[in-house]
Amino acid sequence: MTGTPNGMLFVATDVAAQDEADFNQWYDREHVEERVRIDGFLSGTRYQALQGGRKYLGLYKTTSLDSFTSAAYHAAFTRQTPWSVACLDKMVNPMRRVCSLTTLSGIGCGSHLSILTLAVGADRPLVQRARQLGEELASAAGFVCSSLLLPDALLSTPLPKETTENRRLLPMLLIESSSVQAGQRLADQACAALNIAPDAALQYALSWRLTAQELTS
To answer: What is the pTM of this model?
Structure first.
């Protein structure tokens, strides 16, 4: 892999049942577009949990980690709308990570996403093993792509309601697939290869995606 890796903002949260309608309306009608319009942001994608994990997940892909230290990104936090402030306060047990993104194998965006948290450091053997696994999974039916997220300690500042007790910034392997069945099968294969308990894999379904290209077309 050569060149500067992409960046990715990973935000997962639960929301109380009585707040979900307004929270989703805010995310769908204001927040995703607001973030994707920031210079350096390439896309914003929403998911909902099928198995394990927090119910709502947002992934924002950027040109590089530099996108998270830009004046434009900083300005987004100094001009929060009242709706944003209210909805951020509605988050329950949120998790925010800013990561370098390495694509391991495949291309495209799958309808289903499996997330495996790797309880080891971001060393070279980990990256090599994850890349090898991505190549192994690539030939399986339903596979779309796999990527590795390596959280940046300085940029992964917690959300206002995020607990900092025992907070760990661990690498995550993302596997995108074309169906729920393929996602489960690929996650099981990956867990076996990495000696991870099968029930530790989180399963998400795609809600919708917005790209920067769509905002300028």
So the answer is: 0.94
Six token digits for residue 64 = 């590089």
Contacts of 72 by beta carbon, 8 Å cutoff, 6+ apart:
38, 39, 40
Q: What angle do CA 16, 21, 22 make, to 5 degrees?
A: 90
198 vs 144: CA distance, rounded Å: 20
Q: Which helix (H) or strand (E) holds 173?
A: strand 172-177
Q: Which of 157, 169, 193 is nearest to 119 (CA)?
A: 169
Interval 19-48: pLDDT, tens: 999 999 999 999 999 999 999 999 999 999
**Residues 23, 15 contacting (CB under 8 angstroms):** yes
What domains lie within the chain, and their CATH numbers?
6-216 (3.30.70.100)
